[in-house]
Amino acid sequence: MIKVDDLSAAGAVYPGLTLAAALAMLLLCGAIVYSDFAHRRIPNGYCAAIAVLSVPWWVGLGGISGLVGLAYQLAVPLLAAIPLLALFAARVLAGGDVKLLLSLLLWTPAALVLPMLIVIILGGGALGLVLKLLKRLFCAVNADTVPYGVPIIAGALLVLIPEFRMAMSALQASWA
């Protein structure tokens, strides 16, 4: 049986495809950070594009076997959807934040989900405190809502950096 974590540990089969998907995802993450800070809105198209880009990411990591890994990977966001929808219903998270987190979970190996969630929770709390402090100091700062997409992206990227580095090393080795 193929495990998702085994695919990423083995090295990228198609490192160029893997890195192209990663670069596109990073550009989309930058656009989401801007949109979330400036407008407190995460466009649906960005979340959908990140989700779709997970397919070339996993194919690049494991070839056709990567699709099997992606099928196993689908269980993570499916299991996470229930508590995330409950947080949305309780108005703890906005709909864009839920969609963003579910799309980034398609990229994150199951073993790295807990560290990702810890970074998101701590980052969201820290960002909320900083915004409240800035509102007290400078009344013009909007601290009524926290742009939670920022810590979601930070958490995902922090756990995915080793995966990106591995793909980059595989690409460099293929050029040598």
UniProtKB/TrEMBL annotation:
<feature type="transmembrane region" description="Helical">
    <location>
        <begin position="74"/>
        <end position="94"/>
    </location>
</feature>
<dbReference type="Pfam" id="PF01478">
    <property type="entry name" value="Peptidase_A24"/>
</dbReference>
<protein>
    <submittedName>
        <fullName>Prepilin peptidase CpaA</fullName>
        <ecNumber>3.4.23.43</ecNumber>
    </submittedName>
</protein>
<dbReference type="InterPro" id="IPR000045">
    <property type="entry name" value="Prepilin_IV_endopep_pep"/>
</dbReference>
<feature type="transmembrane region" description="Helical">
    <location>
        <begin position="146"/>
        <end position="164"/>
    </location>
</feature>
<feature type="domain" description="Prepilin type IV endopeptidase peptidase">
    <location>
        <begin position="24"/>
        <end position="128"/>
    </location>
</feature>
<keyword id="KW-0378">Hydrolase</keyword>
<keyword id="KW-0812">Transmembrane</keyword>
<dbReference type="GO" id="GO:0004190">
    <property type="term" value="F:aspartic-type endopeptidase activity"/>
</dbReference>
<feature type="transmembrane region" description="Helical">
    <location>
        <begin position="106"/>
        <end position="134"/>
    </location>
</feature>
<keyword id="KW-0472">Membrane</keyword>
<feature type="transmembrane region" description="Helical">
    <location>
        <begin position="12"/>
        <end position="34"/>
    </location>
</feature>
<feature type="transmembrane region" description="Helical">
    <location>
        <begin position="46"/>
        <end position="68"/>
    </location>
</feature>
<keyword id="KW-1133">Transmembrane helix</keyword>
<dbReference type="GO" id="GO:0016020">
    <property type="term" value="C:membrane"/>
</dbReference>
